[in-house]
Amino acid sequence: MKVSTKLTSIKIIENLYRNFKTDTVNTKMSLQKIVNRSVYLYCNNVNYKTEIDNTNNLLISGSGF
């Protein structure tokens, strides 16, 4: 079964991405996997959605994050 995908362009906070790469260097986790899993959980898990919605400490002055 072929899964349809959507090509998007996102901006990610540089130090978060650097930390992610460091944390996953010896694993099979990729940014693609984490994004797909995160979107899935956001749409299907009320507790996860609430936690994500209430996470505000990523704001950088002048950014839309």
Task: Explain what you see.
It is built from 3 helices and no strands. With 65 residues, the chain is mainly alpha-helical. The chain has a domain at 29-54. The radius of gyration is 14 Å and the shape is globular. The model has no long low-confidence stretch (mean pLDDT 90).
What is the fold's blueprint, element by element?
Layout: H1 14-23, H2 31-44, H3 46-53
Helix pairs in contact: 2-3
Tags for this model:
49% helix; globular; 0% strand; 3 helices
Gyration radius from CA atoms, angstroms: 14 Å
Instruction: State the end-to-end CA separation.
Output: 35 Å
> Approximately how much beta-strand content do the residues carry?
under 5%
Helix proportion: 40-55%
Mean pLDDT: 90
User: What is the tally of helical segments?
Assistant: 3
Give the total of beta strands. Answer: 0
Uncertain stretches of 5 or more adjacent residues: none
Structural class: mainly alpha
Name the shape in a single word. globular
- The SSE string, one letter per element, is HHH
User: Tell me about the biggest sheet?
Assistant: none
